[in-house]
Amino acid sequence: MRLTRFSDIGLRVLIYLARSGERPAPVTVAEIASQFDIPVNHLVKVVGQLARCGWIQATRGRNGGLRLHVAPASLKIGAVLRQLEGEAELADCSGQACRLSPDCILRGALADGLRAFYAAMDRYTLADITAGSTGEKIVRMQRDFMKQLA
């Protein structure tokens, strides 16, 4: 299984916002785009989806920006990935004429693997993955970005 770029960006946005709580001003799309070298137009689509899920608050306008709208400890990574990736089968057997279909064990094995993946991701929260050195690095990135603006 490979995560889509959409999900990768979504996770990065959430991670970045999780460690921006002490900042007086919200994080901007331009800031995240420059920090992770993400095209703004693609980032806007991801941010829109995260806002529709209720995980972030996106405010438009001159003083607008992004803020995390949930407690990091309450947001399970499995839930994020299910929403962003969907729970579609890893191999789409239904649209194909396959001579193995009546007796195929692979489809069930792949479904088991996908369930195991999401179960493993459910053991982690946004707080878990932004703790320690990862969180410290994000705070340094934000500090350095703010210095560039000053």
Automatic annotation (TrEMBL):
Sorted keywords for this record are:
DNA-binding
Q: Which domain of life is it from?
A: Bacteria
The family database entries (Pfam families) matched by this protein are listed as: Rrf2
What InterPro entries does the entry give?
A: Tscrpt_reg_Rrf2 (IPR000944), WH-like_DNA-bd_sf (IPR036388), WH_DNA-bd_sf (IPR036390)
DNA-binding among keywords: yes
**Has the keyword Magnesium been applied to this entry?**
no
The record's PROSITE patterns line, in alphabetical order, gives: HTH_RRF2_2
Q: Which GO terms describe its cellular component?
A: cytosol
User: Which GO terms of the molecular function aspect are on file?
Assistant: DNA binding; DNA-binding transcription factor activity
Name used for this protein in its record = Rrf2 family transcriptional regulator
Source species of the chain? Noviherbaspirillum sedimenti
